[in-house]
Amino acid sequence: MLDEIAAALEPHGLVPRGGFVFGSLDRAPELADGTRAQSIVLVGHFGSSIWPHFSAWRRLHPNVADPLDSWSKRILNAIATQFGGSAVFPSDRPYLPFQQWAMRAEGLRPSPLGLLIHPQYGLWQAFRGALIFPQPVAFAPRHERGHPCDTCMEKPCLNACPVDAFDGEVYAVARCRDYLATEPGGTCLDGGCRARLACPVGRQYGYVSEQQRFHMAAFAGD
Q: What's the pTM?
């Protein structure tokens, strides 16, 4: 089943990002019929794998609000139905614990920026949603990998922000967003978050320029 899900996701630049069977103490999300899910498969991407597919769809739907979320929901809802499950999304309220799920599914841990970091792809990865199922799904044992931030002594991500929005514990969101509204902040809007770009892990998988601008504009406009 996981191979078939991967094959269905691949034409969209998406991949399964691990998963697990919910335990008796977990508060599992509800399926479309109101029953509790038994298992979950997280879905996301690495680098800019989704960008050509999303961009092509967006050109055909230029006036859709929240285009990336709309694109993700269109795809994952259809694939969930195909495999007899439902889809849930990190943008929907009440918010679901996607970060905790991701840490459990792939063994990821947060970087000093608060973003989860992947040992190979660094900060250039994301989760677009999850497929949930009424039955347990068989998962291969999770491959444990080291946390790259443990061996990064210099922590360049904490020194790259022009307004020191990150201190390793707290992210000063308002300070960051206020800076983006200034003329100097245009460099970040056009080129991407300098703190994120400073991370040496997976640098070769960094988002393409258009994708960087899209995410920065979306953040600045929230």
A: 0.94
